[in-house]
Amino acid sequence: MVFLKRFFLLAFVAAMFSSTGQADEYSIDRLEPPFWWQGFKNTELQLMVHGAAISDLTPSFEYPGVSIKRVERTDNPNYLFVYLDIAVSTKAGSFEITFSNDTDMISHRYTLLEKNPDPAHTKGYSNADAVYLITPS
Fold first, then answer.
1. pLDDT (tens digit, 0 to 9) for every residue of the chain, 137 residues total?
2. Which of 4, 102, 116, 123 pairs with 60 at a CA distance of 20 to 30 A?
3. Separation of alpha carbons 122 and 126, rounded Å
4. How far apart are CA 116 and CA 40, in angstroms?
5. Rounded CA gap, 133 and 11, in Å?
6. In this structure, is residue 12 part of a structural domain?
7. What pLDDT score does 20 carry?
8. Rounded to two decimals, what is the model's pTM?
9. Does residue 2 belong to any structural domain of this protein?
10. The CA-based dihedral angle spanning residues 33, 36, 39, 42, taken in that order and rounded to the nearest 10 degrees
């Protein structure tokens, strides 16, 4: 009976260590903003990537009109900031951003939407956006 208990305990511990391979170490829990639009005057876009040990990986992709300007890592290994340059002439569509190192690779699909060209579609800040708070004393 004692032998069986030890056997199952050792089998359990071995299973725990064998299931934590390198590929399981990395994940992408969030990527903000989740999508963007093409055609803006300001062509730089900052992506915040959050996931387990994501800063150990290097991002890359191939999409016409979009390139990586720089990548910034923080003291927290679970965050990575990727700065993209999106040319004004870039076409809307989706592409895979691959995060990799020498041995592991994960990817995330990112989408560029078509910007609405109608200037009436965008409206600036107005008094309709303000809320006046009255607090009785």
1. 555 555 555 555 555 544 444 445 899 999 999 999 998 889 999 999 999 999 999 999 999 999 999 999 999 999 999 999 999 999 999 999 999 999 999 999 999 999 887 777 677 777 777 777 777 76
2. 116
3. 12
4. 11
5. 63
6. no
7. 40
8. 0.71
9. no
10. 0
CA distance linking residue 66 with residue 106, whole number of Å: 20
The domain tally of the chain equals 1
Whole-angstrom distance, CA of residue 66 vs CA of residue 94: 11
Measure the CA–CA gap between 2 and 105, rounded to whole angstroms.
43
Please report whether residue 129 resides in a domain.
no
- The CATH code of the domain that includes 34 is 2.60.40.10
Q: How far is 77 from 54, CA to CA, in rounded Å?
A: 6
Phi, psi (rounded to 5 degrees) for 58: -115, 125
Question: Sign of torsion, CA 115 121 126 131?
Answer: negative
> Residue 19: what pLDDT?
41
Give the structural domain span for 83. 23-116
Q: Which two tokens stand for residue 113?
A: 């939407």
In a domain, residue 112? The reply is yes
